[in-house]
Design a protein that fits this description.
This protein is mainly α. The chain contains 22 helices and five strands. The protein folds into three domains: about 1-75 and about 285-330, no CATH class; about 90-280, Growth Hormone, Chain: A, CATH 1.20.1250; about 340-555, Growth Hormone, Chain: A, CATH 1.20.1250.20. It has helices at about 10-15, 55-65, 95-125, 140-165, 170-190, 190-220, 225-250, 255-265, 265-280, 285-290, 290-305, 315-330, 340-345, 350-365, 365-370, 375-380, 385-415, 415-440, 450-465, 470-480, 485-540, 545-555; strands spanning about 1-10, 20-30, 40-45, 50, 75. The strands form two sheets. A three-stranded mixed β-sheet has the order 2-1-5. Strand 3 (about 40-45) and strand 4 form a beta hairpin. The radius of gyration is 26 Å and the shape is globular.
Length: about 550
Protein backbone atom coordinates (compact mmCIF):
# COMPACT_ATOMS: atom_id res chain seq x y z
CA UNK A 1 0.00 0.00 0.00
CA UNK A 2 1.10 3.58 -0.76
CA UNK A 3 -0.38 6.55 1.02
CA UNK A 4 -0.77 9.49 -1.30
CA UNK A 5 -2.00 12.88 -0.12
CA UNK A 6 -2.85 15.80 -2.25
CA UNK A 7 -4.53 19.18 -2.04
CA UNK A 8 -8.06 18.67 -3.22
CA UNK A 9 -10.89 21.12 -3.10
CA UNK A 10 -14.37 19.99 -2.29
CA UNK A 11 -15.30 21.47 -5.62
CA UNK A 12 -13.33 18.74 -7.37
CA UNK A 13 -15.02 15.98 -5.44
CA UNK A 14 -18.55 17.19 -4.87
CA UNK A 15 -19.09 19.67 -7.67
CA UNK A 16 -19.90 22.39 -5.13
CA UNK A 17 -18.85 26.01 -5.42
CA UNK A 18 -17.20 28.12 -2.73
CA UNK A 19 -16.06 25.10 -0.72
CA UNK A 20 -12.92 25.52 1.34
CA UNK A 21 -9.82 23.54 0.42
CA UNK A 22 -9.19 20.41 2.39
CA UNK A 23 -6.60 17.69 2.36
CA UNK A 24 -7.74 14.22 1.55
CA UNK A 25 -5.65 11.09 1.98
CA UNK A 26 -6.28 8.15 -0.32
CA UNK A 27 -4.94 4.68 0.26
CA UNK A 28 -4.34 3.19 -3.15
CA UNK A 29 -3.31 -0.45 -3.48
CA UNK A 30 -0.20 -0.94 -5.57
CA UNK A 31 -1.03 -2.48 -8.90
CA UNK A 32 1.13 -5.58 -9.34
CA UNK A 33 -0.05 -6.43 -12.82
CA UNK A 34 1.73 -4.72 -15.69
CA UNK A 35 -0.82 -2.90 -17.86
CA UNK A 36 0.30 -3.26 -21.49
CA UNK A 37 -0.96 0.13 -22.61
CA UNK A 38 0.82 2.02 -19.84
CA UNK A 39 4.28 3.10 -20.96
CA UNK A 40 4.72 6.07 -18.68
CA UNK A 41 6.09 5.70 -15.21
CA UNK A 42 2.93 7.04 -13.66
CA UNK A 43 -0.70 7.23 -14.55
CA UNK A 44 -3.61 9.16 -13.13
CA UNK A 45 -6.45 7.82 -11.12
CA UNK A 46 -9.77 9.28 -12.31
CA UNK A 47 -9.95 11.53 -9.26
CA UNK A 48 -6.39 12.79 -9.60
CA UNK A 49 -4.79 10.17 -7.31
CA UNK A 50 -1.45 9.26 -8.84
CA UNK A 51 -0.75 5.54 -8.73
CA UNK A 52 2.34 3.78 -10.00
CA UNK A 53 2.78 1.03 -12.52
CA UNK A 54 4.60 -2.15 -11.51
CA UNK A 55 7.79 -1.09 -13.26
CA UNK A 56 7.77 2.27 -11.52
CA UNK A 57 7.08 0.67 -8.17
CA UNK A 58 9.96 -1.77 -8.61
CA UNK A 59 12.36 0.92 -9.79
CA UNK A 60 11.52 3.24 -6.95
CA UNK A 61 11.39 0.70 -4.09
CA UNK A 62 14.94 1.37 -2.93
CA UNK A 63 14.54 5.13 -3.21
CA UNK A 64 11.32 4.99 -1.27
CA UNK A 65 12.97 2.97 1.50
CA UNK A 66 15.83 5.44 1.72
CA UNK A 67 13.89 8.68 1.41
CA UNK A 68 10.59 7.94 3.08
CA UNK A 69 10.47 7.19 6.77
CA UNK A 70 7.66 4.89 7.94
CA UNK A 71 4.44 6.83 8.08
CA UNK A 72 5.67 9.57 5.77
CA UNK A 73 3.10 11.00 3.43
CA UNK A 74 4.08 11.77 -0.17
CA UNK A 75 2.56 15.07 -1.23
CA UNK A 76 1.83 15.38 -4.94
CA UNK A 77 0.18 18.18 -6.85
CA UNK A 78 -3.29 17.47 -8.05
CA UNK A 79 -3.65 17.47 -11.79
CA UNK A 80 -6.86 18.84 -13.26
CA UNK A 81 -9.15 15.85 -12.89
CA UNK A 82 -10.86 14.39 -15.89
CA UNK A 83 -14.60 14.66 -16.16
CA UNK A 84 -16.33 12.70 -13.45
CA UNK A 85 -19.25 11.95 -15.73
CA UNK A 86 -17.59 8.87 -17.17
CA UNK A 87 -15.17 6.21 -15.96
CA UNK A 88 -11.62 6.17 -17.30
CA UNK A 89 -12.19 2.97 -19.25
CA UNK A 90 -9.72 2.29 -22.07
CA UNK A 91 -11.18 2.27 -25.56
CA UNK A 92 -11.96 -1.31 -26.59
CA UNK A 93 -14.34 -2.96 -29.07
CA UNK A 94 -16.70 -3.66 -26.18
CA UNK A 95 -16.81 0.03 -25.29
CA UNK A 96 -17.88 0.73 -28.88
CA UNK A 97 -20.97 -1.42 -28.28
CA UNK A 98 -21.78 0.77 -25.26
CA UNK A 99 -22.11 3.59 -27.80
CA UNK A 100 -23.63 1.67 -30.71
CA UNK A 101 -26.77 0.24 -29.14
CA UNK A 102 -27.90 3.42 -27.34
CA UNK A 103 -27.20 5.37 -30.54
CA UNK A 104 -29.81 3.23 -32.31
CA UNK A 105 -32.33 5.19 -30.25
CA UNK A 106 -31.11 8.33 -32.03
CA UNK A 107 -31.16 6.55 -35.39
CA UNK A 108 -34.83 5.67 -34.88
CA UNK A 109 -35.58 9.32 -34.10
CA UNK A 110 -33.84 10.41 -37.29
CA UNK A 111 -35.56 7.67 -39.27
CA UNK A 112 -38.93 9.05 -38.23
CA UNK A 113 -37.98 12.46 -39.65
CA UNK A 114 -36.85 11.05 -42.99
CA UNK A 115 -39.60 8.43 -43.22
CA UNK A 116 -42.42 10.88 -42.55
CA UNK A 117 -41.36 13.02 -45.49
CA UNK A 118 -42.06 10.22 -47.98
CA UNK A 119 -44.82 8.50 -46.03
CA UNK A 120 -46.93 11.66 -46.10
CA UNK A 121 -46.77 11.73 -49.89
CA UNK A 122 -47.77 8.06 -50.08
CA UNK A 123 -50.52 8.35 -47.48
CA UNK A 124 -52.22 11.29 -49.24
CA UNK A 125 -51.95 9.96 -52.80
CA UNK A 126 -55.27 8.91 -54.37
CA UNK A 127 -53.58 6.09 -56.28
CA UNK A 128 -50.87 4.97 -53.83
CA UNK A 129 -52.44 5.37 -50.39
CA UNK A 130 -54.49 2.16 -50.51
CA UNK A 131 -57.00 3.74 -48.12
CA UNK A 132 -60.34 5.50 -48.38
CA UNK A 133 -59.20 8.35 -46.16
CA UNK A 134 -56.26 9.53 -48.26
CA UNK A 135 -57.69 13.04 -48.72
CA UNK A 136 -56.28 14.43 -45.49
CA UNK A 137 -56.84 18.05 -44.55
CA UNK A 138 -53.92 20.34 -43.86
CA UNK A 139 -54.49 20.00 -40.11
CA UNK A 140 -54.65 16.20 -40.32
CA UNK A 141 -51.36 16.13 -42.21
CA UNK A 142 -49.87 18.32 -39.52
CA UNK A 143 -51.08 15.90 -36.85
CA UNK A 144 -49.57 12.88 -38.62
CA UNK A 145 -46.24 14.68 -38.54
CA UNK A 146 -46.53 16.36 -35.16
CA UNK A 147 -48.01 13.64 -32.96
CA UNK A 148 -44.66 11.88 -32.75
CA UNK A 149 -43.14 15.15 -31.57
CA UNK A 150 -45.93 15.67 -29.07
CA UNK A 151 -45.30 12.13 -27.84
CA UNK A 152 -41.58 12.93 -27.59
CA UNK A 153 -42.43 15.95 -25.47
CA UNK A 154 -44.63 13.81 -23.21
CA UNK A 155 -41.92 11.14 -23.03
CA UNK A 156 -39.32 13.73 -22.07
CA UNK A 157 -41.55 15.00 -19.27
CA UNK A 158 -42.08 11.45 -18.02
CA UNK A 159 -38.33 10.84 -18.20
CA UNK A 160 -37.74 13.94 -16.10
CA UNK A 161 -39.91 12.43 -13.37
CA UNK A 162 -39.09 8.71 -13.64
CA UNK A 163 -35.87 8.50 -15.64
CA UNK A 164 -33.35 8.78 -12.81
CA UNK A 165 -35.13 6.16 -10.70
CA UNK A 166 -35.56 3.83 -13.69
CA UNK A 167 -31.95 3.89 -14.84
CA UNK A 168 -30.47 4.54 -18.28
CA UNK A 169 -30.58 0.92 -19.44
CA UNK A 170 -34.21 0.24 -18.52
CA UNK A 171 -35.23 3.60 -19.92
CA UNK A 172 -33.67 2.71 -23.28
CA UNK A 173 -35.35 -0.70 -23.28
CA UNK A 174 -38.69 0.99 -22.57
CA UNK A 175 -38.01 3.45 -25.37
CA UNK A 176 -37.35 0.54 -27.74
CA UNK A 177 -40.60 -1.17 -26.73
CA UNK A 178 -42.56 2.04 -27.41
CA UNK A 179 -40.80 2.45 -30.77
CA UNK A 180 -41.79 -1.11 -31.67
CA UNK A 181 -45.42 -0.75 -30.57
CA UNK A 182 -45.85 2.57 -32.37
CA UNK A 183 -44.31 1.40 -35.65
CA UNK A 184 -46.29 -1.84 -35.53
CA UNK A 185 -49.59 -0.02 -35.00
CA UNK A 186 -49.02 2.33 -37.93
CA UNK A 187 -48.03 -0.58 -40.18
CA UNK A 188 -51.23 -2.49 -39.41
CA UNK A 189 -53.59 0.51 -39.15
CA UNK A 190 -56.82 0.41 -41.14
CA UNK A 191 -58.15 3.74 -39.84
CA UNK A 192 -56.57 7.15 -39.36
CA UNK A 193 -57.08 7.21 -35.53
CA UNK A 194 -54.95 4.06 -35.21
CA UNK A 195 -52.22 5.76 -37.25
CA UNK A 196 -52.43 8.72 -34.88
CA UNK A 197 -52.13 6.46 -31.82
CA UNK A 198 -49.12 4.68 -33.28
CA UNK A 199 -47.43 7.97 -34.07
CA UNK A 200 -48.03 9.13 -30.49
CA UNK A 201 -46.56 5.96 -28.94
CA UNK A 202 -43.54 6.13 -31.24
CA UNK A 203 -43.01 9.70 -30.08
CA UNK A 204 -43.07 8.73 -26.41
CA UNK A 205 -40.32 6.24 -27.28
CA UNK A 206 -38.33 9.11 -28.83
CA UNK A 207 -38.64 11.10 -25.60
CA UNK A 208 -37.34 8.31 -23.37
CA UNK A 209 -34.58 7.28 -25.76
CA UNK A 210 -33.27 10.77 -26.45
CA UNK A 211 -33.14 11.47 -22.71
CA UNK A 212 -31.34 8.25 -21.76
CA UNK A 213 -29.01 7.69 -24.73
CA UNK A 214 -26.80 10.80 -24.29
CA UNK A 215 -26.43 10.11 -20.56
CA UNK A 216 -25.60 6.42 -21.10
CA UNK A 217 -23.03 7.20 -23.79
CA UNK A 218 -21.40 9.96 -21.72
CA UNK A 219 -21.25 7.83 -18.59
CA UNK A 220 -19.68 4.81 -20.31
CA UNK A 221 -17.32 6.49 -22.80
CA UNK A 222 -13.59 6.89 -22.11
CA UNK A 223 -12.70 10.56 -21.60
CA UNK A 224 -10.34 10.49 -24.58
CA UNK A 225 -13.18 9.80 -27.05
CA UNK A 226 -16.25 11.08 -25.20
CA UNK A 227 -16.57 14.25 -27.25
CA UNK A 228 -16.31 12.38 -30.54
CA UNK A 229 -18.85 9.75 -29.50
CA UNK A 230 -21.39 12.30 -28.25
CA UNK A 231 -21.05 14.19 -31.54
CA UNK A 232 -21.35 10.91 -33.46
CA UNK A 233 -24.77 10.42 -31.92
CA UNK A 234 -25.89 13.28 -34.15
CA UNK A 235 -24.36 11.31 -37.01
CA UNK A 236 -26.67 8.40 -36.17
CA UNK A 237 -29.67 10.73 -36.15
CA UNK A 238 -28.65 12.03 -39.57
CA UNK A 239 -28.02 8.48 -40.75
CA UNK A 240 -31.56 7.65 -39.67
CA UNK A 241 -32.89 10.59 -41.68
CA UNK A 242 -30.97 9.36 -44.73
CA UNK A 243 -32.28 5.82 -44.24
CA UNK A 244 -35.83 7.18 -44.06
CA UNK A 245 -35.33 9.08 -47.32
CA UNK A 246 -33.81 6.02 -48.99
CA UNK A 247 -36.61 3.66 -47.94
CA UNK A 248 -39.16 6.22 -49.09
CA UNK A 249 -37.44 6.46 -52.46
CA UNK A 250 -37.50 2.67 -52.87
CA UNK A 251 -41.18 2.10 -52.01
CA UNK A 252 -42.83 5.44 -52.82
CA UNK A 253 -44.49 4.05 -55.96
CA UNK A 254 -45.91 0.99 -54.19
CA UNK A 255 -49.53 0.92 -53.10
CA UNK A 256 -49.59 1.33 -49.33
CA UNK A 257 -45.88 2.14 -49.33
CA UNK A 258 -46.29 4.27 -46.22
CA UNK A 259 -46.92 1.07 -44.24
CA UNK A 260 -43.56 -0.38 -45.24
CA UNK A 261 -41.83 2.94 -44.58
CA UNK A 262 -43.07 3.13 -41.00
CA UNK A 263 -42.93 -0.64 -40.46
CA UNK A 264 -39.14 -0.76 -40.75
CA UNK A 265 -39.04 0.78 -37.29
CA UNK A 266 -40.07 -2.59 -35.81
CA UNK A 267 -36.87 -4.59 -36.50
CA UNK A 268 -34.68 -1.59 -35.65
CA UNK A 269 -36.39 -1.17 -32.29
CA UNK A 270 -36.03 -4.90 -31.57
CA UNK A 271 -32.28 -4.52 -32.16
CA UNK A 272 -32.21 -1.62 -29.69
CA UNK A 273 -34.01 -3.64 -27.02
CA UNK A 274 -31.85 -6.73 -27.53
CA UNK A 275 -28.63 -4.72 -27.38
CA UNK A 276 -29.59 -2.88 -24.20
CA UNK A 277 -30.78 -6.11 -22.59
CA UNK A 278 -27.26 -7.47 -23.14
CA UNK A 279 -25.39 -4.37 -21.97
CA UNK A 280 -25.01 -3.59 -18.24
CA UNK A 281 -26.37 -0.51 -16.52
CA UNK A 282 -24.32 2.68 -16.52
CA UNK A 283 -21.66 2.36 -13.78
CA UNK A 284 -22.03 5.99 -12.78
CA UNK A 285 -25.80 5.67 -12.35
CA UNK A 286 -25.20 2.57 -10.20
CA UNK A 287 -22.63 4.48 -8.13
CA UNK A 288 -25.09 7.36 -7.77
CA UNK A 289 -27.59 4.88 -6.33
CA UNK A 290 -25.01 3.41 -3.94
CA UNK A 291 -24.80 0.04 -5.73
CA UNK A 292 -21.05 -0.33 -5.55
CA UNK A 293 -20.75 -4.02 -6.43
CA UNK A 294 -22.99 -3.64 -9.47
CA UNK A 295 -20.99 -0.61 -10.60
CA UNK A 296 -17.75 -2.59 -10.36
CA UNK A 297 -19.30 -5.44 -12.34
CA UNK A 298 -20.41 -2.96 -15.01
CA UNK A 299 -16.87 -1.56 -15.32
CA UNK A 300 -15.49 -5.10 -15.60
CA UNK A 301 -17.93 -5.78 -18.44
CA UNK A 302 -16.67 -2.66 -20.19
CA UNK A 303 -13.10 -3.92 -19.86
CA UNK A 304 -13.95 -7.36 -21.19
CA UNK A 305 -13.14 -6.32 -24.74
CA UNK A 306 -9.52 -5.84 -23.77
CA UNK A 307 -6.99 -8.36 -22.54
CA UNK A 308 -8.30 -11.23 -20.51
CA UNK A 309 -11.79 -12.05 -19.33
CA UNK A 310 -14.24 -9.86 -17.45
CA UNK A 311 -11.77 -7.03 -17.20
CA UNK A 312 -8.78 -8.97 -15.89
CA UNK A 313 -5.52 -7.92 -17.51
CA UNK A 314 -6.45 -4.32 -18.20
CA UNK A 315 -7.45 -3.48 -14.68
CA UNK A 316 -7.80 -5.32 -11.44
CA UNK A 317 -10.88 -5.40 -9.30
CA UNK A 318 -9.15 -3.38 -6.59
CA UNK A 319 -8.53 -0.53 -9.02
CA UNK A 320 -12.14 -0.63 -10.21
CA UNK A 321 -13.41 -0.55 -6.63
CA UNK A 322 -11.24 2.50 -5.95
CA UNK A 323 -12.66 4.16 -9.06
CA UNK A 324 -16.24 3.43 -8.01
CA UNK A 325 -15.46 4.82 -4.55
CA UNK A 326 -14.38 8.01 -6.30
CA UNK A 327 -17.59 8.09 -8.34
CA UNK A 328 -19.71 7.65 -5.23
CA UNK A 329 -17.82 10.41 -3.43
CA UNK A 330 -18.00 12.80 -6.40
CA UNK A 331 -21.77 12.32 -6.77
CA UNK A 332 -22.57 12.48 -3.07
CA UNK A 333 -25.82 14.38 -2.59
CA UNK A 334 -26.55 14.83 -6.29
CA UNK A 335 -29.49 12.45 -6.20
CA UNK A 336 -31.09 14.49 -3.41
CA UNK A 337 -30.94 17.88 -5.16
CA UNK A 338 -34.49 19.21 -5.74
CA UNK A 339 -35.44 19.67 -9.37
CA UNK A 340 -36.47 23.29 -8.96
CA UNK A 341 -32.97 24.29 -7.81
CA UNK A 342 -31.99 24.74 -11.44
CA UNK A 343 -34.51 27.62 -11.60
CA UNK A 344 -34.22 29.10 -8.12
CA UNK A 345 -30.43 29.22 -7.72
CA UNK A 346 -29.02 32.21 -9.69
CA UNK A 347 -25.65 30.53 -10.24
CA UNK A 348 -27.25 28.04 -12.65
CA UNK A 349 -29.07 30.61 -14.79
CA UNK A 350 -26.22 31.55 -17.19
CA UNK A 351 -25.62 27.90 -18.12
CA UNK A 352 -29.36 27.27 -18.35
CA UNK A 353 -29.75 30.30 -20.63
CA UNK A 354 -27.08 28.97 -22.99
CA UNK A 355 -28.43 25.42 -23.13
CA UNK A 356 -32.12 26.21 -23.45
CA UNK A 357 -31.63 29.05 -25.96
CA UNK A 358 -29.57 26.76 -28.21
CA UNK A 359 -32.26 24.08 -28.07
CA UNK A 360 -34.94 26.68 -28.87
CA UNK A 361 -33.10 28.28 -31.79
CA UNK A 362 -32.16 24.85 -33.13
CA UNK A 363 -35.86 24.30 -33.81
CA UNK A 364 -37.41 27.69 -34.51
CA UNK A 365 -34.97 28.51 -37.31
CA UNK A 366 -37.04 25.93 -39.17
CA UNK A 367 -34.56 23.39 -40.46
CA UNK A 368 -35.62 20.25 -38.56
CA UNK A 369 -39.25 20.93 -39.37
CA UNK A 370 -38.44 21.63 -43.02
CA UNK A 371 -36.96 18.13 -43.22
CA UNK A 372 -40.33 16.59 -42.41
CA UNK A 373 -41.69 18.28 -45.53
CA UNK A 374 -38.55 17.97 -47.66
CA UNK A 375 -40.15 15.86 -50.40
CA UNK A 376 -43.14 18.19 -50.64
CA UNK A 377 -40.88 21.24 -50.78
CA UNK A 378 -38.99 19.70 -53.68
CA UNK A 379 -42.29 19.02 -55.42
CA UNK A 380 -43.24 22.66 -55.01
CA UNK A 381 -39.79 23.63 -56.26
CA UNK A 382 -40.44 21.90 -59.57
CA UNK A 383 -39.76 18.19 -59.03
CA UNK A 384 -43.35 17.23 -59.74
CA UNK A 385 -43.28 13.45 -59.42
CA UNK A 386 -43.07 11.72 -56.04
CA UNK A 387 -40.05 9.65 -57.09
CA UNK A 388 -38.10 12.75 -58.21
CA UNK A 389 -38.85 14.57 -54.96
CA UNK A 390 -37.88 11.65 -52.73
CA UNK A 391 -34.77 11.04 -54.82
CA UNK A 392 -33.59 14.59 -54.18
CA UNK A 393 -34.37 14.04 -50.49
CA UNK A 394 -31.92 11.11 -50.48
CA UNK A 395 -29.23 13.43 -51.84
CA UNK A 396 -30.17 15.95 -49.16
CA UNK A 397 -29.81 13.33 -46.41
CA UNK A 398 -26.45 12.17 -47.74
CA UNK A 399 -25.18 15.74 -47.85
CA UNK A 400 -26.40 16.27 -44.29
CA UNK A 401 -24.44 13.21 -43.17
CA UNK A 402 -21.26 14.46 -44.88
CA UNK A 403 -21.56 17.88 -43.21
CA UNK A 404 -22.08 16.19 -39.84
CA UNK A 405 -18.76 14.46 -40.41
CA UNK A 406 -17.16 17.86 -41.05
CA UNK A 407 -18.49 19.13 -37.72
CA UNK A 408 -17.23 16.04 -35.85
CA UNK A 409 -13.78 16.41 -37.42
CA UNK A 410 -13.40 20.11 -36.65
CA UNK A 411 -15.23 20.76 -33.38
CA UNK A 412 -12.14 20.18 -31.21
CA UNK A 413 -9.79 22.18 -33.47
CA UNK A 414 -11.93 25.10 -34.64
CA UNK A 415 -13.98 25.41 -31.46
CA UNK A 416 -17.69 25.55 -30.64
CA UNK A 417 -18.29 29.31 -31.00
CA UNK A 418 -16.78 29.70 -34.49
CA UNK A 419 -18.78 26.76 -35.83
CA UNK A 420 -21.97 28.18 -34.35
CA UNK A 421 -21.43 31.76 -35.52
CA UNK A 422 -20.29 30.90 -39.05
CA UNK A 423 -22.87 28.14 -39.42
CA UNK A 424 -25.81 30.30 -38.34
CA UNK A 425 -24.56 33.08 -40.63
CA UNK A 426 -24.72 30.57 -43.47
CA UNK A 427 -28.28 29.71 -42.45
CA UNK A 428 -29.27 33.37 -42.77
CA UNK A 429 -27.70 33.67 -46.23
CA UNK A 430 -29.38 30.46 -47.42
CA UNK A 431 -32.81 31.50 -46.14
CA UNK A 432 -32.59 34.90 -47.83
CA UNK A 433 -31.62 33.15 -51.08
CA UNK A 434 -34.51 30.68 -50.77
CA UNK A 435 -36.97 33.52 -50.14
CA UNK A 436 -35.68 35.43 -53.16
CA UNK A 437 -36.01 32.40 -55.44
CA UNK A 438 -39.47 31.43 -54.20
CA UNK A 439 -40.80 34.96 -54.55
CA UNK A 440 -39.81 35.03 -58.27
CA UNK A 441 -38.21 38.45 -57.84
CA UNK A 442 -35.43 37.66 -60.32
CA UNK A 443 -36.92 34.91 -62.45
CA UNK A 444 -39.95 32.58 -62.41
CA UNK A 445 -39.77 30.03 -59.62
CA UNK A 446 -40.57 27.24 -62.08
CA UNK A 447 -37.73 28.11 -64.48
CA UNK A 448 -35.00 25.42 -64.73
CA UNK A 449 -32.36 27.79 -63.35
CA UNK A 450 -34.59 28.71 -60.40
CA UNK A 451 -35.21 25.03 -59.63
CA UNK A 452 -31.47 24.31 -59.55
CA UNK A 453 -30.73 27.41 -57.46
CA UNK A 454 -33.46 26.38 -55.04
CA UNK A 455 -31.80 23.02 -54.48
CA UNK A 456 -28.36 24.63 -54.04
CA UNK A 457 -29.71 27.13 -51.52
CA UNK A 458 -31.49 24.38 -49.61
CA UNK A 459 -28.26 22.35 -49.49
CA UNK A 460 -26.45 25.41 -48.11
CA UNK A 461 -29.22 25.81 -45.55
CA UNK A 462 -28.90 22.18 -44.43
CA UNK A 463 -25.09 22.16 -44.50
CA UNK A 464 -24.78 25.33 -42.44
CA UNK A 465 -27.21 23.94 -39.89
CA UNK A 466 -25.32 20.66 -39.68
CA UNK A 467 -22.00 22.26 -38.74
CA UNK A 468 -23.66 24.50 -36.14
CA UNK A 469 -27.00 23.89 -34.45
CA UNK A 470 -27.13 20.18 -35.33
CA UNK A 471 -24.27 18.67 -33.29
CA UNK A 472 -22.96 21.68 -31.35
CA UNK A 473 -26.18 22.42 -29.43
CA UNK A 474 -26.31 18.95 -27.90
CA UNK A 475 -22.56 18.93 -27.27
CA UNK A 476 -22.67 22.25 -25.42
CA UNK A 477 -25.67 21.11 -23.37
CA UNK A 478 -23.56 18.18 -22.20
CA UNK A 479 -20.69 20.51 -21.30
CA UNK A 480 -22.09 23.72 -19.82
CA UNK A 481 -24.50 22.34 -17.21
CA UNK A 482 -22.92 21.90 -13.76
CA UNK A 483 -22.66 18.34 -12.51
CA UNK A 484 -25.08 18.87 -9.62
CA UNK A 485 -27.98 19.78 -11.93
CA UNK A 486 -26.88 18.14 -15.18
CA UNK A 487 -29.63 15.51 -15.22
CA UNK A 488 -32.45 17.98 -14.61
CA UNK A 489 -31.01 20.57 -16.97
CA UNK A 490 -30.58 18.05 -19.78
CA UNK A 491 -34.18 16.93 -19.31
CA UNK A 492 -35.31 20.56 -19.58
CA UNK A 493 -33.21 20.97 -22.72
CA UNK A 494 -34.83 17.89 -24.25
CA UNK A 495 -38.30 19.18 -23.38
CA UNK A 496 -37.48 22.58 -24.91
CA UNK A 497 -36.20 20.87 -28.04
CA UNK A 498 -39.26 18.73 -28.64
CA UNK A 499 -41.81 21.34 -27.53
CA UNK A 500 -40.50 23.92 -29.98
CA UNK A 501 -40.10 21.28 -32.71
CA UNK A 502 -43.71 20.19 -32.18
CA UNK A 503 -45.08 23.72 -32.37
CA UNK A 504 -43.07 24.68 -35.45
CA UNK A 505 -43.90 21.52 -37.41
CA UNK A 506 -47.57 21.85 -36.46
CA UNK A 507 -47.64 25.46 -37.66
CA UNK A 508 -45.66 25.04 -40.90
CA UNK A 509 -48.62 24.01 -43.12
CA UNK A 510 -50.69 26.95 -41.87
CA UNK A 511 -47.76 29.37 -42.17
CA UNK A 512 -47.11 28.16 -45.71
CA UNK A 513 -50.71 28.91 -46.62
CA UNK A 514 -50.81 32.33 -44.98
CA UNK A 515 -47.28 33.64 -45.64
CA UNK A 516 -46.31 31.60 -48.66
CA UNK A 517 -43.05 29.69 -48.94
CA UNK A 518 -41.03 32.87 -49.46
CA UNK A 519 -42.59 34.58 -46.45
CA UNK A 520 -41.88 31.52 -44.30
CA UNK A 521 -38.20 31.64 -45.25
CA UNK A 522 -38.05 35.35 -44.39
CA UNK A 523 -39.55 34.63 -40.96
CA UNK A 524 -36.97 31.93 -40.26
CA UNK A 525 -34.16 34.23 -41.48
CA UNK A 526 -35.21 36.92 -39.00
CA UNK A 527 -35.18 34.40 -36.16
CA UNK A 528 -31.71 33.21 -37.21
CA UNK A 529 -30.40 36.79 -37.02
CA UNK A 530 -31.70 36.96 -33.45
CA UNK A 531 -30.01 33.63 -32.71
CA UNK A 532 -26.67 35.06 -33.90
CA UNK A 533 -26.96 37.93 -31.44
CA UNK A 534 -27.80 35.65 -28.52
CA UNK A 535 -24.98 33.18 -29.33
CA UNK A 536 -22.43 35.98 -29.60
CA UNK A 537 -23.52 37.42 -26.25
CA UNK A 538 -23.94 34.28 -24.13
CA UNK A 539 -22.13 31.20 -25.46
CA UNK A 540 -18.59 30.65 -24.09
CA UNK A 541 -15.84 28.74 -25.86
CA UNK A 542 -15.42 25.34 -24.18
CA UNK A 543 -12.82 23.80 -26.51
CA UNK A 544 -10.03 22.09 -24.59
CA UNK A 545 -11.56 22.74 -21.16
CA UNK A 546 -12.43 20.15 -18.56
CA UNK A 547 -15.97 20.10 -17.21
CA UNK A 548 -14.68 21.59 -13.97
CA UNK A 549 -13.04 24.47 -15.84
CA UNK A 550 -16.24 25.09 -17.77
CA UNK A 551 -18.21 25.14 -14.53
CA UNK A 552 -15.84 27.76 -13.13
CA UNK A 553 -16.67 30.04 -16.09
CA UNK A 554 -20.08 30.75 -14.56
CA UNK A 555 -18.59 31.85 -11.22
CA UNK A 556 -16.11 34.30 -12.74
Amino acid sequence: MRVVAKNVTATHLLGLRNARPSVSVSVVPSVRTQRPHMLSRRHHHPLGVRTQSTRSARDDDDADDADDAPGDVELQPLMAPPSLSAPSTPFTPTVLLFFLFPAIGGLLFGYDIGATSGALLSMTSPTLSGTSWYDLSTSSQGLVVSLSLFGALAGSALALVFGDSMGRRKELILGGALYCAGAGLVYAAQQLPVVMLGRLLYGVGIGFSMHAAPAYIAETSPPSVRGVLISMKEGFIVGGILLGYLVSYLVINSVGGWRSIYGLGVPLSVLLMAGMAWLPESPRWLALKGRKDDAVDSLMRMDAGGEGEAGTGLRRKETLEAEVDGMMLSTSGDDQLPFWTVFTDPKYRPALTVGLSLMLFQQITGQPSVLYYAAKIFQDAGFTSSSSATGISVVLGLFKLVMTGVAIATVDSWGRRPLLLWGVSGIVVALVALATIQSSLLLPATAPLAINLNVVALLLYVGAYQVSFGPISWLLCGEVFPLSVRGSALALATITNFASNFLVSLCIPTLQESLGQAGLYVLFAGIAVGALAVINATVPETKGKSLEEIERIWSE
